[in-house]
Design brief:
7-stranded mixed β-sheet, 3-stranded antiparallel β-sheet, disordered N terminus, binds guanosine-5'-monophosphate, binds magnesium ion
Length: about 210
């Protein structure tokens, strides 16, 4: 089965996970009891992020700068790899700003509300919104509405998409990987603050998730 096309398009990750030829992902002993399996290997992440950086650079070429808005905290490693590649390999200037989004679930309704906490001035007109993962899209939709209110132009880059039905009006410009509907961690993503530092995307054992 051909899973990707030279990593230049969104990569569809099968349930058993992906790795590069010859790559042997292994979980360190300290995490072995917590992790079910590696879903996306270190090598695959690196390769795809390199392609995403060039896709983003092409899209922002005309405006000559990329004003990155990193969604904390899960997007931290993805954003840092992506932005360093853009700055290191292209003529585009970059700015970096952060925003934190937290969901609150109102007991009386089924819909979640997303609260934003900004940090900084968000300079520049053309924003690249960088997020770790999109599930229902509620969080990203809230962030996109916020940028629209501020009169910004933006493109949205997410590392992982669970492929579930999305909030109406959500725009995704760059997607790293389409993944199965499983709870994942690693490469910035956590469960209860843990596993962010793992170099690959992993599936946490179900019995651990409360
Ligand atoms: P959405 O608003 O799209 O339904 O959910 C997106 C947010 O939920 C993400 O920004 C992330 O914080 C969290 N999230 C969704 N799925 C996962 C997952 O599999 N693992 C982790 N660590 N966080 C997730
Ligand atoms: Mg997030």
């Amino acid at each position: 089965m051909k899973i990707w096309n030279n990593f230049t398009k969104t990569v569809n990750v099968p349930a058993e996970g992906i790795k590069l030829e010859g790559e042997e992902p292994s979980i360190r002993d300290k995490y072995r009891d917590d992790i079910e399996r590696v879903l996306i290997s270190k090598g695959c992440l690196k390769k795809r992020v390199e392609h995403l950086a060039s896709e983003v650079a092409d899209a922002f070429e005309e405006v000559k700068e990329v004003n990155c808005l990193v969604v904390l905290k899960g997007g931290m490693f993805f954003a840092s790899d992506l932005i360093r590649l853009i700055d290191d390999e292209t003529e585009l200037r970059t700015r970096i700003d952060f925003i934190q989004a937290s969901s609150y679930y109102d007991k009386s309704t089924t819909s979640g509300r997303v609260k934003l906490r900004e940090s900084g001035l968000l300079k520049g007109e053309n924003i690249l919104l960088i997020e770790d993962i999109v599930d229902t899209g509620g969080t990203l939709k809230r962030l996109q509405d916020y940028l629209r209110e501020k009169g910004k132009f933006f493109k949205t880059c997410v590392l992982l998409d669970k492929g579930l039905p999305k909030s109406p009006g959500l725009e995704l410009d760059f997607v790293g990987f389409n993944i199965p509907n499983e709870f994942v961690a690693g490469y910035g993503l956590d469960y209860a603050g843990m596993y962010r530092g793992m170099p690959e995307i992993v599936i946490v054992k179900k019995e651990l998730l409360k």
